[in-house]
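ping. complex inputs:
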Amino acid sequence: EPEVTQTPSHQVTQMGQEVILRCVPISNHLYFYWYRQILGQKVEFLVSFYNNEISEKSEIFDDQFSVERPDGSNFTLKIRSTKLEDSAMYFCASSDTGVGNEKLFFGSGTQLSVL
Amino acid sequence: RKEVEQDPGPFNVPEGATVAFNCTYSNSASQSFFWYRQDCRKEPKLLMSVYSSGNEDGRFTAQLNRASQYISLLIRDSKLSDSATYLCVVNRNSGAGSYQLTFGKGTKLSVIP
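pong. complex structure:
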């Protein structure tokens, strides 16, 4: 089965530092997403991205966050100035048509720890 | 009221048991419904979509009641490998490219030998 790949698997950073989380979605997919899960909490939607622009974003996705598709394969999430509360597992996901009951493919996640 | 609400468990059941999970959702405009499975510190993986007529996949049966805004998952003949957290997931699907899944917090299942 095709896979969404995320790097790194773990990222440790100091509060106030910038981090970039990287994802390679499935090659023929057109819709890309970031979700996060704070330890012990539910998975939460951050942002969806299609046709090189943000489709939707949640309240969590404030000005400190940005997404980019810098080339034909990568999809990145940047946090400009990390806070302690940004510590979480960040999941990238992709889908083909972005509608209905279509399966969403998740990557294995990047565990971000902000110290 | 939480958008998607589940009994957190844990459910501890012996191998071979039948176990049922329930879920309620608050947004009546929700379009698509799913059960995902999540192993400890791993990504969510789609277990099955849930259709209005109910659907079955091997030992797993899912039901949807739109009037009551209620979703269920039944696992028959539990296996040790079924031990995981089961996530009830709803998609508001407000438009193309808006696969904005809303997750419940999950119900933890432990199948005991």
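Chain A is about 0% helix and 50% strand.
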